């Protein structure tokens, strides 16, 4: 394992967009093979060439999280033109193909003009890709969710945790009321619900109770993701304490889930970056869905080309069944797995009226900006779409200003123009990138408050 030096972080070459999904698969397989990480349990390079691509549609946010990955200059950056975003969406599609997961994110994406937000989701869907809205939920209404669902949104991921310092919600337990409200707001819409929780020194002990809440609403929530505290961006909380590791967070999740969870059967990219577990939920109880890693590996490889649509579980189950009928060699293994699971879960299946759903757990271990591991950056499965190409989210966060302050060349019919990110204007002549020192920084409230307090202390100090 080797860390990138700060010079290497600044100068690391940006990967070009893959020429085609075949090229993307080829790149993913090559890097995993070179790192000794290619195996049958690995989803990357088998099912997909990339876990997901983040499309940052604004740098603005209406919160000021203590672990925010944005830059101090983000608030000064205007919303990037729609033409450029469409171009990036088209590049994602050409590179990774249909069914690619595209995270519509920011900043807070709902701050973007509503018509434009809907147009972005429509564009992603029209190409057969899956759009996920990554939101803190503050500006989300039932009406907006209906419009997004009509536009083709697949998932809505609510980020709720104590790093956001929402007034009146001092603990994770208090935030469950808000989580509940968000889940109810989506009820009945064809959207899959996800929750993101940042695990930090202040809420580590509360993770089991948060998971317990997710477990109680497992019929309405599909995926919950826990992101580990990382020293990046404009957040003030900085590096995590020693207690927070992927292993300890996995143990906390298992405590709340009330069952052991196998996080090593289905891999998503580098094992130091992500862990993925899937539980079967029935009658308010969870059961480990991946407790037979050899079976998971067989099925993952065999079904690699089958598309699973999270928003249409019945259609997906039917497709899987049809596929299984055509593969008699797997019947014995599948039937014995179903029989074993069914027997183990029999009481919950009977008591729950045979309603069985899935609840997936993801642990994402972002890296500190000053400690980027070269191998993980190379095998990154979570990239940000930029005008130059896809960039590892960790690398992007470590040099965010270089990306967001760079003028963007806009391609329209006629002569090209250059969009200036801090003025939002377009000129026909090339403009130099804006230096962070030139930005009239719009500090977030927390920083402003601290700056004001400091200057107040200075002015009242005895001379
Ligand atoms: S390099 Fe960073 S963004 Fe990429 S998968 Fe690893 S932790 Fe995630």
UniProtKB/TrEMBL annotation:
Keywords: Iron, Iron-sulfur, Metal-binding, S-adenosyl-L-methionine. The keyword Isomerase does not apply. It comes from the Bacteria. Gene3D superfamilies: Aldolase class I (3.20.20.70). GO terms for molecular function: catalytic activity; iron-sulfur cluster binding; metal ion binding. It comes from Paraburkholderia tagetis. The keyword rRNA-binding does not apply. PROSITE patterns: RADICAL_SAM. This is Radical SAM protein. Coiled coil: none annotated.
